[in-house]
Amino acid sequence: MTHHRDIGAAPPDEYVEAEIQRLLVEDPAVAEQGITVIRRERALVLYGEVESPHRREEILRLVSERFPDVPITSDIGVIRTQAPTEIEQLP
Amino acid sequence: MVIRIAAVGDVHLDEDVVGRFRPALEELPECADVLLLAGDLTRHGTEAEARCVAEEFGGLAVPVVTVLGNHDHQCDQVPQVVKVLEDAGITVLEGNGVVLDCAGGRLGIAGVKGFGGGFAGRCASDFGEPEMKAFVRTTTDSADRLGAALRSLDCDMLVALTHYSPVPDTLAGEPLEIYPFLGSYQLGQAIDSAPTALAVHGHAHAGTERGTTPGGVRVRNVAHPVIKQAYSVFHVGDQLDTDQVSPIGQSGSQRSWS
Question: Per residue in B132-191, pLDDT tens?
């Protein structure tokens, strides 16, 4: 017996992943190219680094608004801005 | 002769970031002769965001030299962005160069934003549809202008400043599939056409710090997410020793890598 795909089901994960990736770059509220979207068994994982805690919140807000049914795990850091403690010598 | 170069790229400023870099930037005169910004100063390239950059990186005690990045082009306000930066005393390079008198000698910096295209054997070609040819010609033109600017500078030490990468080495960590959007070998070729001492770029947030061109020029990816500090400092010169490193301040750069 042939099993037919239920075309009313949620879009395949790969398209969701692509859409989130583009959303994060193209939505003016975010404009982040450095966030990686990884599909895991139980959730989509977002990781990368941003310049402020506000931007991390915006990313999560945007993705959960657009995909309310997709479980999202976030591991996005805020990049440190301390003065360097070492130099590199280039003779 | 030693020239001290601080550099960072991809700081993506907007109102929410203003003030985060400033404490570290105030230490610059103790550890660097110049600060290079490797593009993507803003999120969307608006005049308002450029004012944030001017506030954060303007009025420093060392000269600041920058190129723009792809984000700085997003809102098609490049002339306004450049004007705001220049009014704040920041030198914006695009196909030209500047020579600065530093304690260690005359530092020449040539800069372009650059563009994608890919690297030897795995790159786009000037062939086919008009869109494809326009893509590759944008890269070639940018690289040609970088090479000409580098060769035109009369200085003791030459540095190339780009946003896009001139080599694949510093992209390690990025997906291979997107290398053609992160840089092009033509930029490396331009850097190798002059006696360049150091090439600095950004753009590749998941890349790595160090690489070299096929001609042996040191390349450093200073994208903020890569260096994970306010800026990196490079001491470039032919005679380095601990005496030259020691004057650096207490809270800033202290030890050499060696």
Answer: 999 999 999 999 999 999 999 999 999 999 999 999 999 999 999 999 999 999 999 999
Among candidates B27, B31, B237 on the partner chain, residue whose Cβ is nearest the Cβ of A91: B237
The number of domains in chain B is: 1
Please check whether residue B51 touches A, CB under 8 A. no
- Distance between CA atoms of residues A47 and B4, nearest Å: 34
Is B232's CB within 8 Å of A51's CB? no
DSSP state of A83: P
Distance from CA of A23 to the nearest CA of B (A): 15
> And the tokens for B230?
């306010």
Domains, chain A:
13-78 (3.30.1340.30)
Using the beta-carbon criterion (under 8 Å), do A31 and B252 form an inter-chain contact?
no
User: Is residue B254 in a domain?
Assistant: no
Range of the domain at B236: 2-245
* Beta-strand relationship, B210-212 and A44-50: unpaired
